[in-house]
Design a protein that fits this description.
The chain is built from five helices and eight strands; from the N terminus they run ββαβαβααβαβββ. 36% of the residues lie in helices and 24% in strands. It is of the alpha/beta class and 135 residues long. α1 (18-32) packs across α2 (51-60) and α4 (76-85) crosses α5 (95-104). The protein has helices spanning 18-32, 51-60, 70-73, 76-85, 95-104; strands at residues 2-4, 12-14, 39-42, 64-67, 90-92, 113-115, 121-126, 129-134. The strands form three sheets. It has a four-stranded parallel β-sheet with strand order 4-3-5-6, covered by helices on one side. It has a two-stranded antiparallel ribbon with strand order 1-2. A two-stranded antiparallel ribbon has the order 7-8. β5, α5 and β6 form a beta-alpha-beta unit. The chain is globular, with a radius of gyration of 15 Å.
């Protein structure tokens, strides 16, 4: 069982069959091509749907998963320090967490492949970076 907000915005428990998870992981592995040199920073609570991508896709491609503790995820400065100190190359986060990271230290984005899953987005330029404004 995982938790997802789906289209409602409210977390709910969902049973995901093993085959569905495998299909998802294979598809995301092909899409993001996370290989042996990649270090993905996992910031999502393990019980939520996107944690499957964060925890398993890098490992399936021979990469490394760096797990951020809850206190670090809630501290943008600490999160930025972890990105640098752990040599993180990929991070998936919500738009609100990305905004907090950019507000703290926009230079951190220069070392990362940025992943974000949202329903609707519009691209904007700020601080010299292509960002996404999401509704």
């Amino acid at each position: 069982m995982i938790y997802t907000s789906g289209s409602t915005g409210r977390p709910k428990g969902v049973v995901v069959p093993q085959g569905g998870l495998v299909n998802f992981l294979v598809a995301m592995g092909e899409r993001f091509a996370l290989g042996a040199g990649e270090r993905l920073l996992a910031v999502t609570t393990v019980g939520f749907d996107i944690a499957g991508l964060e925890l398993f896709v890098p490992l399936l491609g021979g990469g490394v998963v760096v797990v951020a503790g809850r206190d670090v995820v809630r501290d943008p400065a600490g999160l930025c320090r972890l990105v640098v100190s752990a040599g993180v190359t990929v991070m998936q986060a919500t738009p609100s967490l990305w905004r907090a990271v950019v507000a703290e230290d926009p230079s951190v984005l220069g070392r990362l492949r940025v992943l974000v899953g949202v329903r609707r987005c519009r691209r904007i330029w700020r601080w010299g970076w292509l960002l996404v404004r999401c509704r």
